[in-house]
Amino acid sequence: MTDTAASPRILAVANQKGGVGKTTTAINLGTGLAQAGHTTLIIDLDPQGNASTGLDSPSDQREITTYDALTGQSDLSDAMIETPVENFWLVPASVDLSGLDVELSTENTRARRLADLLSNHALTDRFSYILIDCPPSLNILTVNAMVAAHGIVVPLQCEFFALEGLTQLLSTVKGVQQSLNPQLKIDGICLTMYDRRNRLSAQVEEDVRTTLGDVVYATVIPRNVRLSEAPSYGMPALVYDPNCAGSQAYRSLALELISRTSRTRAA
């Protein structure tokens, strides 16, 4: 059974620091939402295309991509493909995205390209959730995601400099709020790569929750080998090993996000 909301919740999964579990979070959170009955679309905006590969879309098989849509060569709907997960769709990425900053440098609407594409309600109203997997940098692609999104999901690795790494991202969010998207909010911060055997993980969690409060999701994503293995098989961990600790955590995160969305819409 699927549940398509009248207006989808659009969330950018973003962190300018690489290696924090951003794409892993986008893939598995999307899978959790889809498995919970919410038709979900993931838009891969990372030139590396890891979300696309992790959802069984190898680079040599991507005919139409986010690059084609953002440059006006194709409609977003033409680029959508089904993933191995029921209720879960993908717009794959292309390495050509890496040159988009330069290609759009003289365009006045360059920061609104994705928002304009997602204003097509015939497309977006098919989905309950739209996730945007951003590149690990604060470039025009990430700004496009923030302008198009209602909220941002921030994967945050449990390491010593975790809080310091948020500063630049929050500064960019503030700039987008002031000039392009006043409705943009941090939907939640997701602690990733948590190692219960390591006292540092517990200390980072305590510091982050003390500093940021309820904006931090209650769910914590553990460091888990199966999460790392799954993309090489072209599938999310929730499909590759549904019972592993990482899959259980992302399933819990999806339910927590659904609950937050319900409260937001009821407010």
Distance between the termini: 26 Å
Q: What portion of residues is helical?
A: 40-55%
Question: What string gives the helices and strands in order?
Answer: EHEHHHEEHHHEHEHEHEHHH
Main sheet: strand order: 3-4-2-5-1-6-7-8
The helix/strand class is alpha/beta
State which percent range the strand residues make up: 15-25%
- Please tell me how large the radius of gyration is: 17 Å
Number of strands: 8
What count of helical segments does DSSP give?
A: 13
Shape, please? globular
Biggest pleated-sheet summary: 8 strands, mixed
Mean of pLDDT: 92
Low-confidence stretches: 1-5
Keywords:
about 270 residues; alpha/beta; 8-stranded mixed sheet; single chain
Any chance you could write out the topology, listing elements then pairs?
Blueprint: E1 9-13, H1 22-35, E2 40-44, H2 50-54, H3 66-70, H4 76-79, E3 81-82, E4 88-91, H5 100-103, H6 113-117, H7 121-124, E5 129-133, H8 140-148, E6 151-157, H9 162-179, E7 185-194, H10 199-212, E8 216-222, H11 225-229, H12 237-240, H13 245-266
Parallel strand pairs: 1-5, 1-6, 2-4, 2-5, 6-7, 7-8
Antiparallel strand pairs: 3-4
Helix pairs in contact: 1-13
How would you characterize this protein structure?
With 267 residues, this protein is an alpha/beta fold. It is built from 13 helices and 8 strands. The chain has helices at 22-35, 50-54, 66-70, 76-79, 100-103, 113-117, 121-124, 140-148, 162-179, 199-212, 225-229, 237-240, 245-266; strands at residues 9-13, 40-44, 81-82, 88-91, 129-133, 151-157, 185-194, 216-222. An 8-stranded mixed sheet has the order 3-4-2-5-1-6-7-8, sandwiched between helices. α1 packs across α13 (245-266). The longest helix has 22 residues, at 245-266. It starts with 8 loop residues before the first strand and ends with a helix. Residues 1-5 have low confidence and may be disordered.
